[in-house]
Design a protein that fits this description.
There is one protein chain. By secondary structure, this protein is of the alpha+beta class. It folds into 3 domains: 104 residues, no CATH class; 51 residues, SH3 type barrels; 82 residues, Alpha-Beta Plaits (2-Layer Sandwich). 49% of the residues lie in helices and 20% in strands. It contains 10 helices and 10 strands. The chain has a 5-stranded antiparallel β-sheet. Strand 3 and strand 4 form a beta hairpin. The protein is elongated, with a radius of gyration of 36 Å. It starts with a helix and ends in a 5-residue tail after the last helix. The relative contact order is 0.07.
């Protein structure tokens, strides 16, 4: 047993210098740029470090803007996004020469990219530029409620290429940024978080319009999410075929992003308030006037024998 223990074969070792030389050996040459495994490793490590730096700076900057400057979330979001883009740009131009990559090669690549843009990357470029315009000019902001070509929802993220919108059905729409620049966009909360809602209702012709107005105003004043400034209003819209038509106008700042639920709650309260006030909500009806009827039809309807 002692002879077996003493006869272990020595482990072969590879000099570190040979490993380094292998990693630094170029496997492809582009102009005067020699691409090696070591260069690729350096690029990956640098990009990961730069990404971590951007994330940390964005988190700290967002906290600083909200806590110290009392900035609103949309302003803090725009500033942190632009700061992140700036760090990526500066870090790229500083890091490339450090890894031995001449910036002239980058200019050559950008020129080749320009040819690609001319051939089929126009949409990508338009969306990237559109994303910067949205962050700088801020026609829409994170948290805004917007309408775009029939779709309505809340802006939850403005990315480099697309903007994410969450609808009332909790569906996330990915809209290219260029569409916000070239198409008509309705921003319901552009300058103020207040959004006014219209609640139409019809009552019977026998109802007192003043009592209807008081009942509707009481509903608006009692709802916790409807504001008093500006005060709610009741408009007498007209005389319908079967009802007197009214509309309750009231605003909210806290229920902007769930309008359907708010509308349902208010309609329930309107129905209860009108019922308690003895005001009926009519259903559509028609009066039929018969000018002439055949005698046999009259006898049949009256139950008489046609014979």
């Amino acid at each position: 047993m002692g002879s077996r223990i003493g006869s272990v074969a020595p482990v072969a070792t590879v000099p570190i210098a040979d490993v380094v030389a292998y990693l630094e050996r170029p496997f492809i040459t582009i102009g005067s740029l020699h691409v090696s495994i070591m260069l690729l490793i350096e690029i990956v490590v640098y990009v990961v470090a730069l990404w971590i730096t951007v994330r940390v700076v964005n988190v700290r900057l967002d906290q600083f803007l909200r806590d110290r400057w009392k900035a609103d979330p949309s302003t803090a979001y725009a500033i942190t996004r632009l700061t992140g883009y700036a760090i990526w740009a500066v870090g790229t131009f500083i890091g490339l020469p450090m890894m031995g990559i001449d910036l002239s090669h980058v200019a050559l690549a950008v020129g080749a990219l320009g040819v690609g843009i001319g051939l089929g990357l126009q949409n990508l470029t338009e969306n990237l530029v559109g994303g910067l315009i949205l962050l700088v000019a801020r026609p829409i902001k994170v948290g805004d409620r917007i309408q775009l070509e029939g779709a309505e929802g809340m802006v939850i993220d403005i990315g480099p290429r697309v903007t994410q919108i969450r609808t009332n059905d909790n569906i996330c729409l990915l809209v290219p940024n260029a569409e916000f620049i070239s198409k008509r966009v309705v921003n319901l909360t552009f300058e103020d978080r207040l959004v006014r809602f219209r609640f139409p209702v019809g009552v019977s012709y026998g109802a007192d319009p003043k009592r209807v107005r008081e009942a509707l105003l009481a509903v608006a004043r009692a709802h916790p999410d409807l504001v008093d400034d500006p005060p709610p209003r009741v408009l007498f819209m007209g005389f319908g075929d079967s009802a007197l038509e009214f509309a309750l106008w009231a605003g909210t700042r806290t229920r902007v992003h769930d309008p359907d639920v708010l509308r349902s709650e208010v309609n329930f309260r309107i129905f209860e308030a009108l019922a308690q006030a003895g005001i009926s909500i009519p259903f559509p009806q028609r009066d039929l006037h018969v000018r002439s009827v055949a005698p046999d039809v009259v006898r049949a309807l009256s139950g008489q024998d046609p014979g």
